[in-house]
Design goal:
With 237 residues, this protein is an alpha/beta fold. Helix content is 33%, strand content 26%. The structure holds adenosine-5'-triphosphate. It comes from Gordonia amarae NBRC 15530.
Length: 237
Protein backbone atom coordinates (compact mmCIF):
# COMPACT_ATOMS: atom_id res chain seq x y z
CA UNK A 1 0.00 0.00 0.00
CA UNK A 2 1.51 3.32 -0.92
CA UNK A 3 -0.93 6.04 0.11
CA UNK A 4 -3.64 5.74 2.70
CA UNK A 5 -6.01 8.53 3.66
CA UNK A 6 -8.26 7.94 6.66
CA UNK A 7 -11.20 10.15 7.58
CA UNK A 8 -9.49 13.23 6.18
CA UNK A 9 -11.06 16.56 7.00
CA UNK A 10 -9.65 19.28 4.76
CA UNK A 11 -10.49 22.92 4.36
CA UNK A 12 -9.38 26.51 4.50
CA UNK A 13 -8.76 28.15 7.85
CA UNK A 14 -11.06 26.33 10.23
CA UNK A 15 -13.78 25.82 7.64
CA UNK A 16 -13.98 22.20 6.45
CA UNK A 17 -14.60 21.66 2.75
CA UNK A 18 -14.07 17.89 2.69
CA UNK A 19 -15.20 15.64 5.55
CA UNK A 20 -14.30 12.06 6.38
CA UNK A 21 -12.51 11.19 3.12
CA UNK A 22 -11.01 7.70 2.87
CA UNK A 23 -8.69 6.84 -0.03
CA UNK A 24 -6.19 4.08 -0.76
CA UNK A 25 -3.84 4.09 -3.71
CA UNK A 26 -1.46 1.19 -4.08
CA UNK A 27 1.92 1.33 -5.69
CA UNK A 28 1.61 1.48 -9.51
CA UNK A 29 -2.08 2.41 -9.44
CA UNK A 30 -3.79 5.53 -10.76
CA UNK A 31 -6.78 7.01 -8.93
CA UNK A 32 -8.88 9.61 -10.76
CA UNK A 33 -10.36 12.15 -8.33
CA UNK A 34 -13.33 13.59 -10.18
CA UNK A 35 -16.12 16.00 -9.37
CA UNK A 36 -17.70 19.31 -10.33
CA UNK A 37 -16.18 22.74 -9.72
CA UNK A 38 -15.89 23.57 -6.05
CA UNK A 39 -16.16 19.94 -4.92
CA UNK A 40 -12.94 20.17 -2.92
CA UNK A 41 -10.51 18.31 -5.20
CA UNK A 42 -7.75 20.93 -5.10
CA UNK A 43 -8.26 21.33 -1.35
CA UNK A 44 -7.62 17.58 -0.97
CA UNK A 45 -4.50 17.71 -3.15
CA UNK A 46 -3.04 20.69 -1.27
CA UNK A 47 -3.75 18.97 2.05
CA UNK A 48 -2.16 15.69 0.93
CA UNK A 49 0.91 17.68 -0.17
CA UNK A 50 1.09 19.33 3.27
CA UNK A 51 0.45 22.80 1.85
CA UNK A 52 -2.77 23.04 3.88
CA UNK A 53 -2.94 21.67 7.44
CA UNK A 54 -5.32 18.78 8.00
CA UNK A 55 -8.39 19.59 10.07
CA UNK A 56 -8.80 15.92 10.95
CA UNK A 57 -7.88 12.37 9.96
CA UNK A 58 -4.55 10.94 8.87
CA UNK A 59 -2.46 10.45 5.75
CA UNK A 60 0.23 7.79 5.53
CA UNK A 61 2.75 6.69 2.94
CA UNK A 62 3.98 3.10 3.19
CA UNK A 63 2.62 2.97 6.72
CA UNK A 64 4.36 6.14 7.86
CA UNK A 65 1.92 8.81 9.04
CA UNK A 66 2.74 12.20 7.52
CA UNK A 67 2.85 15.34 9.62
CA UNK A 68 0.03 17.81 9.04
CA UNK A 69 0.75 21.02 7.17
CA UNK A 70 4.44 20.30 6.58
CA UNK A 71 5.13 20.44 2.83
CA UNK A 72 8.90 19.92 3.21
CA UNK A 73 8.64 16.71 5.23
CA UNK A 74 5.74 15.49 3.12
CA UNK A 75 7.81 16.00 -0.02
CA UNK A 76 10.82 14.20 1.50
CA UNK A 77 8.49 11.32 2.36
CA UNK A 78 7.92 10.93 -1.37
CA UNK A 79 4.70 12.86 -1.94
CA UNK A 80 5.17 15.17 -4.92
CA UNK A 81 2.52 17.60 -6.19
CA UNK A 82 2.15 18.89 -9.73
CA UNK A 83 -0.01 21.92 -8.92
CA UNK A 84 -2.66 23.25 -11.29
CA UNK A 85 -0.68 26.46 -11.80
CA UNK A 86 2.48 24.39 -12.55
CA UNK A 87 4.55 26.68 -10.26
CA UNK A 88 7.63 26.74 -12.49
CA UNK A 89 10.41 29.29 -12.16
CA UNK A 90 10.07 31.16 -15.46
CA UNK A 91 13.71 32.28 -15.49
CA UNK A 92 15.16 28.75 -15.27
CA UNK A 93 15.74 26.64 -18.35
CA UNK A 94 14.31 23.16 -18.74
CA UNK A 95 17.73 21.70 -17.95
CA UNK A 96 18.21 23.89 -14.87
CA UNK A 97 14.73 23.13 -13.55
CA UNK A 98 15.36 19.41 -13.74
CA UNK A 99 18.91 19.52 -12.38
CA UNK A 100 17.80 21.51 -9.33
CA UNK A 101 15.05 19.00 -8.50
CA UNK A 102 16.94 15.79 -9.34
CA UNK A 103 17.07 13.19 -6.58
CA UNK A 104 19.13 10.04 -6.45
CA UNK A 105 17.19 7.17 -7.98
CA UNK A 106 14.71 9.48 -9.69
CA UNK A 107 14.00 9.41 -13.42
CA UNK A 108 17.12 10.69 -15.17
CA UNK A 109 17.41 13.54 -17.67
CA UNK A 110 17.91 10.98 -20.46
CA UNK A 111 14.70 9.19 -19.47
CA UNK A 112 12.89 12.53 -19.43
CA UNK A 113 14.05 13.16 -23.00
CA UNK A 114 12.61 9.76 -23.98
CA UNK A 115 9.33 10.39 -22.19
CA UNK A 116 8.92 13.94 -23.50
CA UNK A 117 10.76 14.32 -26.84
CA UNK A 118 9.21 17.80 -27.19
CA UNK A 119 11.21 18.94 -24.15
CA UNK A 120 14.49 17.75 -25.64
CA UNK A 121 14.19 20.36 -28.37
CA UNK A 122 13.60 23.02 -25.72
CA UNK A 123 16.29 21.90 -23.26
CA UNK A 124 18.05 25.28 -23.01
CA UNK A 125 14.85 27.37 -23.21
CA UNK A 126 13.56 29.19 -20.12
CA UNK A 127 10.40 27.72 -18.58
CA UNK A 128 8.63 31.06 -18.99
CA UNK A 129 9.10 30.89 -22.77
CA UNK A 130 7.62 27.39 -23.17
CA UNK A 131 4.13 26.73 -24.50
CA UNK A 132 1.41 25.67 -22.04
CA UNK A 133 1.76 22.02 -23.04
CA UNK A 134 5.54 22.14 -22.75
CA UNK A 135 5.26 23.78 -19.33
CA UNK A 136 2.94 21.00 -18.21
CA UNK A 137 5.42 18.40 -19.46
CA UNK A 138 8.17 20.17 -17.52
CA UNK A 139 6.02 20.31 -14.37
CA UNK A 140 5.45 16.53 -14.59
CA UNK A 141 9.12 15.92 -15.45
CA UNK A 142 10.21 18.00 -12.45
CA UNK A 143 8.04 15.79 -10.25
CA UNK A 144 9.45 12.59 -11.75
CA UNK A 145 13.10 13.44 -11.15
CA UNK A 146 12.20 13.70 -7.43
CA UNK A 147 11.50 9.94 -7.32
CA UNK A 148 7.92 10.24 -6.11
CA UNK A 149 6.31 7.38 -4.20
CA UNK A 150 3.05 9.27 -4.58
CA UNK A 151 2.41 11.66 -7.44
CA UNK A 152 -0.45 14.16 -7.10
CA UNK A 153 -1.41 15.73 -10.42
CA UNK A 154 -3.95 18.54 -10.18
CA UNK A 155 -5.72 19.43 -13.42
CA UNK A 156 -3.05 18.58 -15.92
CA UNK A 157 -5.42 19.79 -18.60
CA UNK A 158 -5.78 23.32 -17.22
CA UNK A 159 -5.51 25.65 -20.21
CA UNK A 160 -4.44 22.89 -22.58
CA UNK A 161 -6.04 21.67 -25.80
CA UNK A 162 -7.59 18.19 -25.38
CA UNK A 163 -5.17 16.81 -27.98
CA UNK A 164 -2.24 17.73 -25.72
CA UNK A 165 -3.93 16.13 -22.72
CA UNK A 166 -4.58 13.00 -24.80
CA UNK A 167 -0.84 12.77 -25.27
CA UNK A 168 0.11 13.49 -21.66
CA UNK A 169 -2.25 11.23 -19.72
CA UNK A 170 -0.96 7.93 -21.18
CA UNK A 171 2.51 9.01 -20.05
CA UNK A 172 1.13 9.19 -16.51
CA UNK A 173 -0.13 5.62 -16.89
CA UNK A 174 3.29 4.48 -18.16
CA UNK A 175 5.00 6.19 -15.21
CA UNK A 176 2.78 4.38 -12.71
CA UNK A 177 3.37 1.05 -14.47
CA UNK A 178 7.11 1.41 -14.91
CA UNK A 179 8.10 3.11 -11.64
CA UNK A 180 5.44 1.81 -9.23
CA UNK A 181 4.46 5.35 -8.31
CA UNK A 182 0.96 5.71 -6.84
CA UNK A 183 -0.86 8.48 -8.70
CA UNK A 184 -3.85 10.66 -7.85
CA UNK A 185 -5.11 12.51 -10.87
CA UNK A 186 -7.58 15.40 -10.66
CA UNK A 187 -8.96 15.84 -14.14
CA UNK A 188 -11.90 17.64 -15.74
CA UNK A 189 -11.62 15.54 -18.92
CA UNK A 190 -13.45 12.61 -17.37
CA UNK A 191 -13.31 10.30 -20.40
CA UNK A 192 -9.55 10.74 -20.75
CA UNK A 193 -9.01 10.25 -17.02
CA UNK A 194 -11.03 7.01 -16.99
CA UNK A 195 -8.94 5.67 -19.87
CA UNK A 196 -5.76 5.76 -17.81
CA UNK A 197 -7.06 5.30 -14.24
CA UNK A 198 -7.59 2.10 -12.26
CA UNK A 199 -10.17 3.57 -9.94
CA UNK A 200 -12.34 6.68 -9.88
CA UNK A 201 -13.74 8.57 -6.93
CA UNK A 202 -16.33 11.31 -7.43
CA UNK A 203 -16.37 14.10 -4.87
CA UNK A 204 -19.35 16.46 -4.65
CA UNK A 205 -19.58 19.17 -1.98
CA UNK A 206 -16.74 17.48 -0.12
CA UNK A 207 -18.39 14.05 0.05
CA UNK A 208 -17.71 10.92 -1.97
CA UNK A 209 -20.76 10.13 -4.11
CA UNK A 210 -19.24 7.32 -6.20
CA UNK A 211 -16.26 4.99 -5.98
CA UNK A 212 -15.76 2.49 -8.80
CA UNK A 213 -13.10 0.74 -10.82
CA UNK A 214 -12.43 2.87 -13.91
CA UNK A 215 -13.16 -0.13 -16.16
CA UNK A 216 -16.75 -0.31 -15.02
CA UNK A 217 -17.38 3.41 -15.51
CA UNK A 218 -17.74 5.11 -18.82
CA UNK A 219 -17.71 8.86 -19.05
CA UNK A 220 -21.29 9.12 -20.26
CA UNK A 221 -22.80 6.58 -17.88
CA UNK A 222 -25.98 7.34 -15.99
CA UNK A 223 -24.25 6.28 -12.80
CA UNK A 224 -21.54 8.86 -13.27
CA UNK A 225 -24.04 11.57 -14.22
CA UNK A 226 -26.04 10.90 -11.09
CA UNK A 227 -22.92 10.92 -8.95
CA UNK A 228 -22.08 14.38 -10.33
CA UNK A 229 -25.51 15.94 -10.36
CA UNK A 230 -27.79 13.74 -8.24
CA UNK A 231 -31.05 12.08 -9.30
CA UNK A 232 -33.00 15.31 -9.00
CA UNK A 233 -31.11 16.80 -11.95
CA UNK A 234 -32.61 14.42 -14.50
CA UNK A 235 -33.97 16.38 -17.45
CA UNK A 236 -37.75 16.54 -17.78
CA UNK A 237 -39.12 14.45 -20.65
N1 LIG B 1 -8.07 29.93 -0.40
C1 LIG B 1 -9.32 29.62 -0.07
N2 LIG B 1 -9.92 30.16 1.01
C2 LIG B 1 -11.19 29.83 1.36
N3 LIG B 1 -11.94 28.97 0.67
C3 LIG B 1 -11.41 28.40 -0.42
C4 LIG B 1 -10.08 28.69 -0.86
N4 LIG B 1 -9.81 27.95 -1.97
C5 LIG B 1 -10.94 27.25 -2.22
N5 LIG B 1 -11.89 27.51 -1.29
C6 LIG B 1 -13.24 26.93 -1.25
O1 LIG B 1 -13.13 25.53 -1.08
C7 LIG B 1 -14.15 24.87 -1.84
C8 LIG B 1 -13.49 23.79 -2.69
O2 LIG B 1 -12.61 24.40 -3.63
P1 LIG B 1 -11.59 23.53 -4.47
O3 LIG B 1 -10.76 24.49 -5.25
O4 LIG B 1 -10.91 22.57 -3.57
O5 LIG B 1 -12.56 22.72 -5.42
P2 LIG B 1 -12.24 21.92 -6.76
O6 LIG B 1 -13.05 20.67 -6.68
O7 LIG B 1 -10.77 21.78 -6.94
O8 LIG B 1 -12.85 22.88 -7.85
P3 LIG B 1 -12.36 23.20 -9.36
O9 LIG B 1 -12.66 21.98 -10.15
O10 LIG B 1 -13.20 24.36 -9.71
O11 LIG B 1 -10.89 23.52 -9.30
C9 LIG B 1 -14.86 25.94 -2.63
O12 LIG B 1 -16.07 26.22 -1.96
C10 LIG B 1 -13.94 27.12 -2.58
O13 LIG B 1 -14.68 28.32 -2.58
Amino acid sequence: MSLRVDQLVAGHGKVPVVRGLDLEVESGKVLALLGPNGAGKTTVMLTLAGLLPRLGGSVSVNGQVLPSGNPGKTNSSGVVLVPDNRALFGGLTVAETLTLSQRKGGVTADQIRDLFPALTKRWKVKAGALSGGEQQMLAVARALVQKPAVLLIDEMSMGLAPVIVEGLLPIVRDIADSTGTAVILVEQHVALALEVADEAVVLVHGEVTLRRSADTLTADSEELRQAYFGKAAQPAR
